[in-house]
Specification:
- The chain has one domain.
- Helix content is about 30%, strand content about 10%.
- A hairpin with a 5-residue loop joins strand 1 and strand 2.
- Helix 1 runs parallel beside helix 4 and helix 3 runs antiparallel to helix 6.
- The longest helix is centred in the first third of the chain and has 16 residues.
Length: about 260
């Protein structure tokens, strides 16, 4: 890996840590803190866009799906059309593609998983997937690394600090055989997004070779749009978008507090 490549990765990590990237800023108006901000203290107010970009908001703030929608809706007409949807995915790909070679390598995906979207590696979100739906679930969590089928055991509700990223992973080696599949029971990013995708960026590994090309990333965005636009209107609105499992759990927790 070249010095330039290493510096690019470190610069991106520093910007993410400092909250300086524009897509981490709060776009929607936030209501001021109130005495019901602890409605669901153990539930992260987090949304993952269809292309895997995380949006986070403070407890009690509107669910950050609105932040993603307003960012992607470039002409601010309240309708997210196909071109805007795919362009939003393309912009995120370009951010992840540190050396601008048109593919996401093992190293670049590790930067995404460890530094941009660590929720992927935490495991099962505690969103009360049981019959009570009270957000108090405490199932063991499995850490998933999409590449090469890596993994381990872990748990807890906070963002973990994974070990250092191995720059050696930058080589674009093609693994023998198909990588291990990801669990689909509320793991990784699945609770925060519209789709059952524990690792949403790796979903675009359509060639199953451990790397992701820009055309495949955009093709996946196209498929996502067509799935969400089940009415075949040619655009999406906030009102027609499905609710994520986390959003539903936050709403249940808030209703439960108001009844008590």
């Amino acid at each position: 890996m070249t010095t330039t490549r290493r510096q690019s990765g470190l610069a991106l990590i520093a910007l993410v840590a400092a909250g300086a990237l524009p897509w981490t800023a709060a776009i929607a108006a936030r209501r001021p803190p109130s005495d019901d901000d602890d409605d669901a203290p153990n539930l992260p107010n987090t949304f993952f866009s269809p292309c895997g970009k995380p949006f986070r908001a403070e407890s009690g703030a509107p669910y950050p799906v609105i932040d993603w929608f307003k960012e992607a809706d470039k002409n601010a007409d309240g309708k997210l059309d196909h071109d805007e949807f795919v362009a939003d995915a393309g912009s995120f790909f370009d951010l992840l593609d540190l050396n601008k070679d048109g593919v996401l390598s093992h190293y670049e995906i590790l930067v995404y998983e460890h530094r941009i979207a660590p929720e992927i590696l935490i495991g099962t979100a505690h969103i009360g997937l049981g019959p009570d739906g009270d957000g108090q679930g405490r199932d063991g969590a499995r850490l998933w690394l999409a590449q090469m089928g890596g993994g381990g055991m872990g748990g807890g509700g906070g963002v973990q600090r994974p070990g250092p990223i191995d720059p050696g992973g930058d080589t674009q080696e093609i693994p023998q055989g198909k990588p291990k599949g990801l669990d689909e029971s509320g793991q990784g990013a699945s609770p925060y997004g519209f789709f059952e995708e524990p690792e949403p960026v790796m979903t675009a590994d359509l060639d199953v070779n451990g790397i992701i090309s820009r055309p495949n990333f955009l093709k996946t965005a196209d498929m996502h749009f067509n799935t969400l636009d089940w009415r075949k209107q040619g655009y999406l609105t906030l009102a027609t978008l499905p609710k994520t499992p986390i959003e539903k759990a936050l709403e249940r927790a808030k209703k439960g507090r108001r009844k008590s």
